[in-house]
Amino acid sequence: MAGYTPFEPEQMLAALNRAGVRYVLIGGLAAVLHGGVLRTGDADICPARDPDNLERLAAALHELHAAIRAGDEQVPLPADPTLLRQNDIWNLSTTYGDLDIAFCPAGTAGYEDLAEAAVRYELDDGVTVDVASIDDIIRSKRTADRPKDREALPSLEAIRDEQHG
């Protein structure tokens, strides 16, 4: 995957769906689906961490030719559910762009916590995705408290206020 890889999130999410992976879309792309104007060049997901889902996730990552992003280097990721379980965060490059996996995003208890209030969106080509609620996105960004998160909060809070009337 050396060189430029176009960012095609619908294709990436479609591969996860084909494999039957249970996940919630989080981060900047989730905020964009709620109406945000954040620029993002990756997709962030929070998958369920049960053994069967990790098997499906490993299969999807194999299909996506996932590699670990390590600076300017990319190291092929073995499609191994046991390996996936060993880290809470994976920063990957795929055939369709960058994919970040967080099993327990800041301020959350992970997949089950986020799935409770997730909103289902239908993207192009019939791809459906469960997206973290705007409240959960805000909660996570507040907890992470990185400069880019603090910068995003006013626009996310405006979206939340509009959604809640």
Please describe what this structure looks like.
This protein is an alpha+beta fold and 165 residues long. It has one domain: Beta Polymerase, domain 2 (2-Layer Sandwich). Helices cover 42% and strands 23% of the residues. It has 7 helices and 8 strands. The chain has helices at residues 9-18, 27-33, 51-63, 81-85, 111-117, 134-144, 147-163; strands spanning 23-26, 42-47, 67-70, 73-76, 89-94, 97-102, 119-122, 128-131. Strands 1-2-6-5-3-4 form a 6-stranded mixed beta sheet. A hairpin with a 2-residue loop joins β3 (67-70) and β4 (73-76). The mean pLDDT is 92.
Strand-residue fraction? 15-25%
**How many whole angstroms does the radius of gyration measure?**
15 Å
The arrangement of helices and strands along the chain is HEHEHEEHEEHEEHH
Biggest pleated sheet: 6 strands, mixed
Q: Percentage of helical residues? A: 40-55%
Throw out a few tags for this protein.
42% helix, alpha+beta, two-stranded antiparallel sheet, Beta Polymerase, domain 2, 165 residues, 6-stranded mixed sheet, single chain, 23% strand, 7 helices
